[in-house]
């Protein structure tokens, strides 16, 4: 039992209405459950496999879901890096281990299931890459067509490869993500295509399970949850979910929600640090972490609440810091992530060095996408393979043995 409601004016809408923002005031919508009517226990959840669908009582899907077994991703203790940073309780939740290699699958299993539940015949999104890959995957599983709009020349190779191979109609827009999103929103509203960007409140429902799993895996509520921020959907979703757990009495406190952006694309950080009422967009966002190259985060209003209500913070990291952390995670922890994902851990490094956080905190950094998403940025940072003649002598000489 749930309704859609506006986070700004409180207007309510029936769950079956195809609507992405409030008809009265234009602000964001959220899914409101009748939590009093939810009778599931924590124990029942714990008996199910760790996955998005463990938490189905807090999801809007009532049909058989379109699923590829998403979620249940590993939570790694970063022992080496934690030691270096003086953070004994530093963890990474590796969302790159989802079916399409990013956390977007949590949103898409729910979002595409909702498209079917609502009787929609086709789906679309704008994307910096991962959303398009995930949408293509889940549309293929559901057997419906998908259209994806990408900023031309600014999407990592692996993500384009996935969107193409899984059969989406892939369209490259000669402009940035923010413009592509405005275009696809219009398209969907005018032509009855189901929009699956994170402005869609049902998609975010799936993503909130990152927070649920983090609590279940850690065995307690982390003191801080750190996420890279682009459109600010994920940080908002995780906060919303944990608030629900708190209301249900399953947890007794919330983690400090902490958002990390790239220095060349940090409207949310400016709003938090400047204590602004709303986000002022970056006209020309730029960063090597193309996944979060977003100047006008559509979910900013929700994210500002999430960060402020939990005593969290937002910080930015340079491209150099992002890439250095991508290498550190790969080489010191065996965790392969794409640049945007490394931003969360790079942000914690920066915050701890600035003395902004307590070293005893239990910190979960969400690392959002797999290393193989962006092979070009990897290859640019690494020396090429050493090519030799196929002789033992040549081999020993390059190994200096
Ligand atoms: N990390 C990765 C790897 C992403 O792909 C994204 C967003 C984010 C973090 C930020 O999440 O937008 O919820 O704040 N990628 C979107 C896309 C925009 O189109 O794939 P957010």
Query: If you compute it from the alpha carbons, what radius of gyration comes out, rounded to the nearest whole angstrom?
Result: 21 Å
| CATH topology label of the domain at 75-101 and 203-381 | Rossmann fold
What is the number of helices? 15
CATH class wording of the domain at 75-101 and 203-381: Alpha Beta
What number is the mean pLDDT?
Answer: 97
Structural class assignment: alpha/beta
Tell me about the largest β-sheet: 6 strands, mixed
User: Which series of helices and strands comes N to C?
Assistant: EEEHEHEHEHEHEHEHHEHEHHEHHEHH
User: Spans with pLDDT under 50 lasting ≥5 residues?
Assistant: none
Helical percent range?
25-40%
Bound chemical compounds: ligand F0G
CATH architecture of the domain at 75-101 and 203-381: 3-Layer(aba) Sandwich
Strand content: 5-15%
Secondary structure: number of strands: 13
Shape verdict: globular
Q: Report the end-to-end length measured between terminal Cα atoms.
A: 69 Å
Strand order across the biggest sheet? 4-5-13-10-11-12
What this model shows, in words?
This protein has 401 residues and is an alpha/beta fold. Among the domains are: 1-37; 75-101 and 203-381, Rossmann fold. The protein has 15 helices and 13 strands. It has helices spanning 42-46, 79-85, 104-117, 130-142, 157-165, 177-191, 201-207, 209-218, 233-248, 267-273, 300-309, 319-333, 339-353, 375-381, 392-399; strands spanning 2-6, 12-13, 29-33, 75-77, 90-94, 123-126, 146-151, 169-173, 194-195, 224-228, 256-262, 313-317, 363-367. The strands form three sheets. It has a six-stranded mixed β-sheet with strand order 4-5-13-10-11-12, sandwiched between helices. Strands 8-7-6-9 form a four-stranded parallel β-sheet. A three-stranded antiparallel β-sheet has the order 2-1-3. Helix 5 links the parallel strand 7 (146-151) and strand 8. Helix 8 (209-218) packs across helix 9 (233-248). The longest helix is centred in the middle third of the chain and has 16 residues, at 233-248. Residues 102, 104, 127-131, 198, 228-234, 291-292, 338, 340-341, 368-369 line the site of ligand F0G.
């Amino acid at each position: 039992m749930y309704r859609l409601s506006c986070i700004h004016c409180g207007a309510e809408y029936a769950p079956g209405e195809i609507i992405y923002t409030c008809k009265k005031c234009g602000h964001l919508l959220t899914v409101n459950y009748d939590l009093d009517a939810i009778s599931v226990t924590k124990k029942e959840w714990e008996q199910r496999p760790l996955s998005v669908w463990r938490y189905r009582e807090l999801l809007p899907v009532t049909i058989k879901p379109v699923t590829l077994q998403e979620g249940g991703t590993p939570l790694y203790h970063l022992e080496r890096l934690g030691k270096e940073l003086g953070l004994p309780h530093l963890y990474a939740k590796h969302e790159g281990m989802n079916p399409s290699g990013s956390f977007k699958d949590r949103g898409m299993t729910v979002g595409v299931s909702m498209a079917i539940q609502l009787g929609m015949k086709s789906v679309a999104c704008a994307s910096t890459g991962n959303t398009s890959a995930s949408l293509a995957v889940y549309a293929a599983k559901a057997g419906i067509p998908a259209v994806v709009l990408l900023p031309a020349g600014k999407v990592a190779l692996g993500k384009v490869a996935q969107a193409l191979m899984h059969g989406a109609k892939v369209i490259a827009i000669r402009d940035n993500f923010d413009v592509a999103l405005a275009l696809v929103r219009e398209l969907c509203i005018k032509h009855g295509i189901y929009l699956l960007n994170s402005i869609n409140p049902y998609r975010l429902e799936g993503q909130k399970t990152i927070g649920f799993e983090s609590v279940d895996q850690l065995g307690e509520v982390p003191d801080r949850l750190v996420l890279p921020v682009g459109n600010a959907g994920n940080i908002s979703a995780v906060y919303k979910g944990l608030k629900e757990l708190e209301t249900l009495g399953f947890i007794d406190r919330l983690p400090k929600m902490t958002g990390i952006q790239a220095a060349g694309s940090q409207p949310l950080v400016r709003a938090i640090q400047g204590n602004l009422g709303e986000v002022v967009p970056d006209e020309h966002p730029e960063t090597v972490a193309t996944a979060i190259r977003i100047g006008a985060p559509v979910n900013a209003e929700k994210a500002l609440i999430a960060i402020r209500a939990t005593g969290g913070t937002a910080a930015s990291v340079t491209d150099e810091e992002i890439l250095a952390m991508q290498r550190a995670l790969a080489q010191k922890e065996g965790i392969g992530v794409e640049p945007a994902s490394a931003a969360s851990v790079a942000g914690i490094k920066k915050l701890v060095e600035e003395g902004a956080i307590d070293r005893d905190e239990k910190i979960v950094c969400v690392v959002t996408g797999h290393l193989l998403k962006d092979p070009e940025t990897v290859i640019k940072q690494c020396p090429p393979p050493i090519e030799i003649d196929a002789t033992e002598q040549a081999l020993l000489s390059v190994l200096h043995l």
